[in-house]
Amino acid sequence: MISVYIACRDEKEARLIGLHLLERRLIACANIFPVKSLFRWRGKITEETEAVMICKTQQQNFERIKEEARQLHSYEIPCIIALPWVEGDEEYKNWVRSETHNDT
Question: pTM score > 0.70 for this model?
């Protein structure tokens, strides 16, 4: 199991990507949070308001999640990273597995 962290331009973009990934059964759920981000971009320090998604899924879905999210993402270089689970409730893990099965 992994959580996929995706920083988005705003809540609307995060919701669009999250629903897309859910419809394709690539994630079991997505939590969306407003955040203030500080970063260096093209030589300048920037402060922006963004939305961050934390999506729960299985490791084998990560490459496809990256591809699908990039197609809908507005950023030139989006932050899409996998965070491994150190531990987790077995019942919750089973639910994630059942929601992210791929019949194709």
Answer: yes
